[in-house]
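name: query_chain
kind: protein
chains: 1
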Amino acid sequence: MSKMRKSNQSTTINRLSQDLVKLVEIFKTGGPANNFNWWNSQSTQSIFTTYEPYKEGLEIFHEVTQSILRLNPDMLSEKEVEQNLAYGFLGKKAVSQEHLGQEELEENARKYLRELLEPRYQDIDIPIANLQLDGPPFKLGHVTLMSITDQYRQWEKSIFVSDIVSRNIHMFARIHAPGVKQKAYFYAISQARLVMDVLRAFCFPLNPEEADSWQVGIVGDTVFAGSIPMLINKKRQVALQGPSHIINLELRTRLLSKLESRQWEEISHLLQKSEHSRRPMENKLLNGVRWLAEATMPDNYQTRFSKIAFALETLVGGEPQKAEALKARGIADMLAERAAFIAGKDLDDRLTIASNIHKYYGMRSDIVHGGRKGISADDIDDFGTLVRRLAVALLARLNELGNELNTVDSLASWIKTQRYTLPEQD
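structure:
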């Protein structure tokens, strides 16, 4: 933390400590606040709104809460700040430290606020189903994939995990999460889901006939195959079976081998950035990856195909600020051209990519407008493979061109340069 920021934080803490003393003074007047059991049974809002003598403190309380969140937005949720202030400081101070003077209360308040703002981290382990670690732990972004231990098995027995799930848990995702409780929990699950989306988007089969047996994911998110019980004519019982077998996959052999180690390093570096520090095109890439991941999950064929189209539009779509030319040319032409220049290796390859984008995007339009029902598994596989190739190529372009490919505008400008650049003369 810079000296300037430390100075500003110190000034804010001094101001907030004075506000906390004002709140303590309000509660020193007596009433329900003298009974700490009352504090534990009331919400932070009803403390101030139910009893007339305390109502003047509500505005001060909200201002202190919001100021703390601004000082440390990554560590505490609003609810946690309110509970800490109400039960951890005001309840105890109003009841147990009535004899203290203002200076002593202010010093206690400053100490309490500094402790509350101290960075805290939790190591959170989230179980992953149907995936095995064939080798040492693997770190991707902020997530480390690790094999389960005997200690984990003992913990597993103490919570509700069905036998069929337990038998298919071989590893977990460990996240060093900032925050106390809620912030840390939500951060951890979001990071674990992001990594699973990346693995799905780049490594899972897209053909539905194969993809539905790859039920790898966070326990609780994963759709486990099973029988669907049915009663026929109120008499005969049947069970419609799901996929005949669920595959336990090896991380390195079956997933990580789909990309080169350099590409995984580039992905890991991208995932380590916060959403606010990523360039707009980097966020577009990750949002497109999420749609590709969605396309590998069980669903009807039209929906899977549409999700791949969403991934395509997310990866390279978007109008530049001056979009008159785009309106004239059409979205399909724009997507086809951008995809061709980003992923194409030579003229023939670019022409093939552009032609296929036109074909598949036309099929997507037919689905949206209700005119097409016959989407095949091969259509999903071929379209998905093409968009996956585009995602990999865009990842390489972002690392190769850096800030030259920062926004949709810079993408449009780069495409224009490619379009009108003459070949080198021998």
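note: The chain has a mean pLDDT of 85.
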